[in-house]
Design a protein that fits this description.
Helix 1 runs antiparallel to helix 6 (123-146), helix 2 runs antiparallel to helix 3 and helix 4 (76-97) crosses helix 6 (123-146). The chain has eight helices and no strands. It is mainly alpha-helical and 209 residues long. Helices cover 71% and strands 0% of the residues.
């Protein structure tokens, strides 16, 4: 876990990254990839060191973050496929959660493959929905971390990269998943109607004079 003095900056990074992804994910997709690549890379690299190794941990976080950001920017289509795969995995978990069961790993793999394939054919819509809901969750975790929620603080500063997206950052608070769905839908609507650009394009085409 990051030292206490670095937990607030980590929460701010999650908050800002969540806002950008939720409302401007398609138009600024490469920037979103860079932000989340940096977050994942930083958490993965910093997890190698203990809390007492503050200096090496920070250096590793910065270097790992830059590498992660560079890899996702360079692998644009991989980033698109990952968005689709993530949506497929989330869909599988939500469907099985309704029955009180966990999805079999083969079912999970099938959903991720279908999601990745669909994302390549319907890039605009998968990117918009994926960034809107992913950004909404990151935004919520960032806000709760800033407010001092223990679970969200763990997400903001844990030494385990997979805790960045805790499935339940606030146990017992039923408003969290509701807020996530509402915020994700709002982000999707904003991107489709305003910030998403023309169909299939990241930047609006300039009109010829």
């Amino acid at each position: 876990m990051l030292p206490a003095t670095y937990q607030l900056p980590a929460a701010l990074v999650l908050l800002i990254g969540g806002i950008v992804a939720c409302f401007f994910g398609y138009r600024l997709f490469r920037i979103v990839l860079a932000i989340f690549g940096f977050i994942v890379g930083a958490f993965a690299a910093s997890s190698v060191f203990g809390v007492s190794d503050t200096g090496p941990m920070i250096v590793a976080a910065v270097v790992g973050g830059l590498i992660g950001a560079g890899l996702l920017i360079a692998a644009y289509f991989v980033g698109v496929a990952l968005v689709g795969a993530a949506l497929g995995a989330v869909t599988a978990n939500l469907l099985f959660a309704a029955t009180g069961q966990d999805p079999h790993f083969l079912v999970l793999i099938l959903f991720t493959i279908v999601g990745a394939a669909g994302a390549m054919y319907l890039q605009r819509y998968f990117i918009i929905v994926g960034t809107a809901f992913g950004g909404a969750w990151t935004l919520i975790v960032g806000v709760m971390a800033l407010l001092g929620n223990p679970g969200a603080l763990a997400a903001a500063a844990a030494n385990d990269v997979w805790v960045v997206y805790p499935l339940d950052p606030a146990p017992g608070q039923q408003w969290v998943p509701v807020a996530w769905i509402v915020l994700g839908l709002i982000g999707t609507g904003v991107q489709l109607g305003w910030t998403g650009g023309e169909k299939g394009r990241v930047v609006r085409r300039k009109k010829k004079s």
